[in-house]
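Example record

The entry below shows one chain as it appears in the dataset: sequence first, then structure tokens.
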Amino acid sequence: MAGRADGNITSSTEANKLVIKYPQLAIVPDGEKNPAFLAMMVPKGDDKWNNYMNDWIKKKKSSGFFTKLLAKYNLKSL
């Protein structure tokens, strides 16, 4: 930390990693926000890719992958 800034706005995932690495930092709560959803563009008619992505998501959900990520980074939602 070079001391050149008083504050920073970043994602909650990055902020959680930074406060673990640099204990002198803190996350300042600013109220509830709407979660930002991520998306993957799948070409129209590309059923093979679309099915692969849907299957991957189902497998990750059923294995608890996303729940573990939430716990690991102390997040409310992805």
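Notes for this example: The chain has one domain: 12-72. The chain has a mean pLDDT of 80.
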